[in-house]
Design goal:
E3 ubiquitin-protein ligase RNF123, ubiquitin protein ligase activity, single chain, 42 helices, about 1300 residues, seven-stranded antiparallel β-sheet, alpha+beta, cytoplasm, zinc, metal-binding
């Protein structure tokens, strides 16, 4: 039979059940005796033994209704009670009391059974209480945080600090802290985990209260409960912020019923009995076949049953479903009867047999039941399936999850059911993404991981890049054996998980089917509409937890979606040779500006979409033949003006805003439960599609297309895939794009959504899961330290040995648990296949950015997240998947590194990109890129013109962009070449704490001489490049060091207060950052002087003298502040405050020394003379500061040998591991030179009167006069001022020129005039 119910000519109305005498003749195809035997076989009563054929009443379709009434009759005692039950007070349908029985702010689900904490410690109770008898209810733990579950009386009063169990007559179990609560607390039970079922039992006959966890009793928790007049107990819970549970008072079958205890809500017993009897009749139909030729009944296996259109069988089924259909709309019966039956079908046969059987059953449901009945039944069935899949325990072979997924696949293979579920249930009512998630077992022993992975192992050292690693060759034989056994166990686990993953991919393949468009829209296009809404809700609801799909679900969904997407992509390529393979996939740039795909309010590279369409409308017309409707441009403008307004209907849909004073809230349908209406339904920025104004003939390249917008629901298959005159999603193809199609347009939209998913939450979750590996490393270090202490501990200290042995056991047990959990994480999140998926996404983004870049100004339409995903996916591949998998093993690794390097180098200063966040991300990514040898070599492999353009952008004046990140990039190109600049750990920390393995670690130096040469060439290139660059560097150095000094003054003052001192950690962090910036800026100056010394020393250049004077001034300022005896800097360094570890003499003094050595030792004789004169002429110069570098308190006498340094004083000679002998000799040479030059300058200097000193700096004599105003200063001050301002210091007149001024010349001129 066809899977589509509508393909049959029968309908329920065709089988209107009557007692017409003609009925038997019309349908009596089989003989009367055979019909009688058949109906008795189908509708036999299970309570009575089968009677002889002669004694039973003949059955036919005339008296079958009467027989069915008798068969389905239920005794009075089995009828569902409609009144009050003894021992229970309240409504018969038990739910949470969201009108008055709560405290704090809570979010309650639509069915009033699920609750999420939305305040500190909210409490809620049920609507029904009990005062006599034995009662039970179940709580499904959705999150494993702080909760207290139990019972309370109506007189209990709770608040934001005290909940269930904290008052008299309230009792609670807390599986988070493993305690029981009744005013006081004691240890009880065991820890719960997400997915556990807690059964809460109360026996008011004996006055006891107990709990069960997953059906296992935890023992009696409380005895001697208060009973009697006025004492009745309500189910209640208190839960902290963002914790969630779901109650089952009996509306669904209890997962773990307890003998003798009754659920608070009575099950529909009568209906349950009827449904089970009708299911028995239906089973009989499936297992009996009519043989009219032989006139007998044939027993056969139900899996082989086929509906062949026999009227007798159809009429029999019509009678069954006439009574069965209303029952199948009830939640309890669907889960207790239909779900159990379908699970049996799946578990009994092969997957093919189960799918065939389920398909026929669904055909019968659609055939004999009204549409609304089938729809309600399917909705409840899928909700039950999802709940069972999500919360079933993890068993070693994952059989429970496999059976639930197989049943889901069998249901979704039915076309009509699949389309209904896609359109109305999977994304609207259910969190269907759960079907693609494989939860991590929190209890290793219950998941059977001990049997799968009997031998545990963990790495001895972290092998991430930049840290020491232990090679496999250094392993002992025992370590090697354990590692190999552990890897084999991991492979066994991975194979079992892959079975589940393949079933999940099959589900998505069914949802992405676009061949099932007979009589309606294909599944893929329904999926696209729902998928886009799902993305929109998660993009707009970031930060609002109830509205978000959990990131761990999103990770699994992404991987399954990529597998299904690539399957269909390559399948299309197989039938269309001109298309591209999935390995060459990318998103064409026209998708970003033609409006066919909705990007909501996500930021574009060039800003807001409305702004781009107004400013680039001419480019759209000339390059893409697209005209924007003027009415829509006007609507967009008006919408921007009304950005903060919201229509009343939208505001009414937001209950959380309506109850600002606190209270219990009906839970808004999350992103996976509903599609909330947008406040501005016709927002231009939220347009989902652009369609043509229906031209009647193909368009030529010169014709312009006026477009209008469509909502996502209005799009048709033609709007997406296009037709012979309409390119669909690819409308507006720029001339740079090829004409041949990549693949089906709908797959392009799925790919675009996959990239967006990675950006929304997948990357953050990948980083979060690395925490398991970090925990393993921490415990491994602790275990090794404990074992070392055990070996060193004297045998006579038995007390210490006992404690160490106990610690060793604890660490070993924890490592066994974590290593097995790590195996699960590696199999589900960090496997080789998952790594290839992320790598594929990276390459998709790279190709997309490259194609978009070719469109010129239209590149601004690309959403920012494409660049973000390119950056973040590379970071994930490099940092998260090691050490098990290495990025270097990926195919095309070198080429991919080079392409990403080219993108970062070109776009970090791209004027088409305006967003501050994305520009910072590009800058930080480039800074990280040049830290590592492999990626730095990739930067060096990009074309020369791109390298030069990148360095030119780095040398642009710092005031125009975030200068700190730019400076880090330049510094990293220099590390390894500077004076004493080859360390990977801060030397001063290693001297004070050599045994501390957790000290901050820097990357190994990997300087780039090629990029340094480009920098030197550009600085020599023009007269303005070097001065503007160095002026900004010197400005920033002055600012950073001044800020640093100001902050350490505040820190010192706080430390000296008698009262309890407290320094804000943020202030310490900012202080350390300013210090690090000062050091890095000094290193950039050192690099500049080394590469292009003539910028400072060739005074033929107009700005050289000014730059050298400014440099000398700043160097003297730094030296004086840092080297003064018992000064502010010394005192703060001595405090060793956490957060200021990097602040010390060594980093900053070696940077200053490197600059001085380059100026005074390595330069030409003329340059050395100029540098010396400028340095000594600065009034802040102190020779004592230079002596401090070598640990000498005072300058040595001329001709004497330098004494040995004082061990208690700072000296570069103490850091011989980091400073070479040659470098120390150069410092000594510099000191001798400055000592001699200083003595000569002191002997030759003449006193200067105060009148002749510069009125700005009071350090140098007046040497320049400004024209036309005639005011005077020294050349250094006016030249520095003119770098940034053209106005006079004194009168603010515009300075036209600056002339030399000498006092003698001025005096003679004045005398002549007199």
């Amino acid at each position: 039979m066809a899977s589509k119910g509508s393909s049959m000519s029968f309908s329920r109305k065709s089988y209107r059940l009557t007692s017409d005498a003609e009925k038997s003749r019309v349908t009596g195809i089989v003989q009367e005796k055979l019909l009688n035997d058949y109906l008795h076989r189908i509708f036999s009563s299970p309570e009575h033994a089968p009677t002889a054929a002669t004694s039973r009443k003949p059955l036919n379709f005339q008296n079958l209704p009467e027989h069915l009434d008798q068969l389905l009759h239920v005794d009075n005692e089995d009828e569902e009670s409609q009144g009050q039950v003894e021992g229970r007070l309240g409504p018969s349908t038990v739910v949470l009391d969201h009108t008055g029985g709560f405290e704090g702010l809570l979010l309650v689900d639509d069915d009033l059974l699920g609750v999420i904490g939305h305040s500190n410690f909210g409490t809620i109770r049920s609507t029904t209480c009990v005062y006599k008898g034995k009662w039970v209810y179940e709580v499904l733990i959705s999150s494993q945080g702080l909760m207290q579950i139990g019972w309370c009386t109506i007189n209990c009063r709770f608040n934001q600090e005290e909940g269930v169990g904290d008052t008299h007559n309230s009792y609670a179990y807390d599986g988070n802290r493993v305690r029981k609560w009744n005013v006081t607390t004691t240890n009880y039970g065991k820890a719960w985990a997400a997915g556990d079922i807690v059964s809460c039992l109360i026996d008011l006959d004996d006055g006891t209260l107990s709990f069960c966890l997953n059906g296992v009793s935890l023992g009696t928790a409380f005895e001697n409960l208060s009973r009697g007049l006025g004492m009745a107990y309500f189910p209640a819970i208190s839960l902290s912020f963002k914790e969630s549970v779901a109650f089952n008072f009996g509306s669904r079958p209890l997962r773990y019923p307890v003998a003798g205890y009754r659920p608070l809500q009575d099950p529909p017993r009568a209906d349950l009995v009827r449904a089970q009897k009708l299911l028995g009749c239906f089973r009989a139909v499936l297992s009996v076949e009519l043989d009219p030729v032989e006139g007998r009944l044939v027993e056969k296996d139900s899996s082989e049953w086929q509906l062949q259109g026999q009227p007798t069988v159809l009429l029999t089924l019509a009678h069954i479903f006439h009574r069965f259909a209303p029952l199948l709309r009830k939640v309890y019966l669907v889960e207790a009867v239909l779900m159990s039956f379908l699970r049996g079908v799946v578990e009994a046969g092969t997957p093919a047999q189960a799918q065939s059987m389920v398909r026929q059953i669904l055909d019968l449901l659609w055939l004999f039941m009204e549409d609304y009945e089938v729809q309600d039944c399917l909705k409840q069935l899928m909700m039950s399936l999802l709940r069972l899949y999500r919360f079933s325990p993890i068993v070693p072979d994952l059989s429970l999850q496999i059976h639930y997924l197989q049943l889901t696949i069998a249901i979704l293979r039915h076309e009509k059911s699949r389309k209904f579920l896609l359109s109305n249930v999977l994304f609207d009512v259910l969190r269907s993404v759960v079907f693609f998630y494989i939860k991590s077992p929190l209890r290793v022993e219950e998941a059977g991981l001990q049997e799968l992975i009997p031998t545990t192992w963990w790495p001895h050292r972290s092998s991430r890049e930049g840290k020491d690693s232990k090679d496999v060759k250094d392993e002992t034989t025992e370590e090697h054996r354990r590692r190999r056994a552990y890897e084999r166990g991991c492979q066994r686990l991975k194979k079992r998980i892959e079975v589940v993953e393949e079933l999940q991919v099959q589900i998505l393949k069914l949802l992405l089917n676009n061949k099932d468009d007979n009589g309606g829209e294909a599944s893929r296009y329904i999926f696209l509409t729902k998928f886009r809404k799902f993305l929109q809700e998660n993009a707009s609801g970031r930060g609002n937890m109830p509205m978000l799909c959990p990131p761990e679900y999103m990770v699994c969904f992404l991987h399954r979606l990529i597998s299904a997407l690539r399957y269909y992509w390559d399948e299309y390529k197989a039938s269309n040779p001109r298309a591209s393979f999935s390995e060459e996939a990318y998103i064409p740039p026209q998708v970003f500006y033609n409006g066919k795909v909705d990007y909501f309010d996500l930021q574009r590279l060039g800003g807001l979409l409305s702004h781009l369409r107004k400013t680039l409308k001419d480019d759209l017309a000339s390059k893409a033949n697209i005209l924007i409707d003027p009415l829509e441009l006007q609507a967009a403008t008006m919408d921007d003006l009304d950005e903060d307004e919201e229509p009343a209907p939208a505001a009414a849909q937001r209950p959380m805003q309506a109850l600002a004073m606190g209270g219990v809230l009906p839970l808004p349908r999350p992103s996976w439960l509903s599609s909330p209406t947008l406040g501005r339904a016709n927002r231009f920025l939220s347009t989902a599609a652009v369609s043509l104004m229906t031209p009647r003939r193909p368009l030529t390249t010169s014709e312009k297309v006026k477009v209008r917008t469509l909502s996502a629901e209005q799009r048709t298959r033609e709007d997406i895939e296009g037709s012979h005159w309409n390119e669909g999603l690819l409308l507006g193809r720029p001339p740079e794009e090829p004409e041949q199609p990549l693949t089906e347009n709908s797959l392009l939209e799925v790919l675009d959504g996959a990239v967006m998913m990675y950006n929304l939450s997948v990357h953050q979750q990948l980083g979060k899961m690395v925490g398991v590996s970090d925990d393993v490393n921490e415990y491994a270090v602790a275990l090794r330290d404990t074992e070392d202490k055990l070996r060193r501990c004297p045998k006579r200290r038995k007390d210490i040995l006992a404690e160490l042995t106990k610690s060793q056991k604890v660490f070993s047990e924890k490592l066994d648990h974590l290593s097995r959990r790590l195996a699960w994480v590696h199999a589900t999140v960090y496997s080789q296949e998952k790594m290839l998926d992320i790598y594929w996404l990276l390459r998709v983004c790279l190709r997309t950015v490259e194609h978009g870049d070719r469109t010129g100004s239209l590149f601004a339409f690309m959403p920012e997240f494409y660049l973000s995903v390119a950056i973040n996916s590379y970071s994930a591949l490099k940092n998260y998947f090691g050490p098990v998998h290495s990025m270097e093993e990926l195919p095309g690794y070198e080429e991919t590194l080079t392409r990403l390097a080219a993108i970062l180098a070109k776009h970090f200063a791209d004027t088409r990109i305006v967003g501050t966040d994305i520009r910072d991300s590009l800058m930080q990514a480039l800074a990280s890129y040049v830290c590592y040898p492999h990626s730095l070599r990739a930067v060096e492999r990009i074309p020369e013109e791109q390298r030069i353009a990148m360095v030119r952008s780095l040398l642009a004046p710092y005031e125009q962009r975030p200068w700190a990140q730019t400076n880090w990039i330049l510094v990293r190109l220099w590390r390894g070449c500077g004076f004493g600049y080859r360390y990977t750990r801060l030397p001063h920390l290693l001297k004070t704490k050599p045994e501390d393995a957790n000290l901050p670690s820097l990357q190994k130096p990997c300087p780039s001489t090629l990029l340094q040469q480009h920098m030197a060439d550009l600085l020599r290139e023009g007269p303005d490049v070097a001065p503007s660059f160095l002026n900004s560097v010197l400005n920033q150095l002055n600012w950073a060091f001044s800020e640093f000094i100001g902050m350490i003054q505040e820190i010192q003052q706080a430390a000296e207060r008698l009262e309890r001192n407290f320094v804000d950690s943020r202030q310490l962090k900012v202080c350390a950052t300013c210090f690090d910036l000062s050091v890095s800026l000094l290193r950039v100056l050192e690099m500049t002087i080394t590469l292009v010394p003539e910028i400072f020393l060739d005074w033929a250049r107009p700005t050289s003298e000014m730059l050298l004077r400014r440099l000398a001034q700043l160097l003297n300022q730094v030296l004086n502040r840092v080297t003064a005896e018992r000064n502010l800097f010394d005192r703060v360094v001595t405090l060793r405050l956490p957060g200021l570890e990097s602040v010390d003499h060594y980093p900053i003094l070696v940077a200053v020394t490197g600059i001085l050595v380059r100026l005074l030792v390595h330069g030409p004789a003329s340059g050395t003379e100029r540098a010396t004169s400028v340095l000594l002429a600065d009034p802040c110069f102190q020779l004592r500061s230079i002596c401090y570098l070598l640990g000498q308190p005072e300058p040595p006498a001329p001709g004497t040998v330098l004494p040995a340094p004082d061990r208690k004083r700072f000296s570069l000679q103490s850091y011989t591991d980091y400073i070479s002998v040659e470098e120390l000799a150069q410092v000594e040479q510099m000191l001798a030179h400055l000592t001699s030059a200083s003595a000569q300058a002191a002997a030759a200097s003449l006193p200067t009167s105060e009148e002749d000193l510069c009125p700005i700096c009071y350090a140098h004599p007046i040497s320049a006069v400004f024209q036309p105003c005639g005011h005077k200063s020294c050349k250094a001050c006016i030249n520095q001022h003119l770098m940034n301002n053209k106005d006079c210091f004194f009168c603010k007149a515009t300075i036209v020129s600056v002339e030399d001024w000498e006092k003698a010349a001025s005096t003679s001129t004045t005398s002549s005039a007199a």
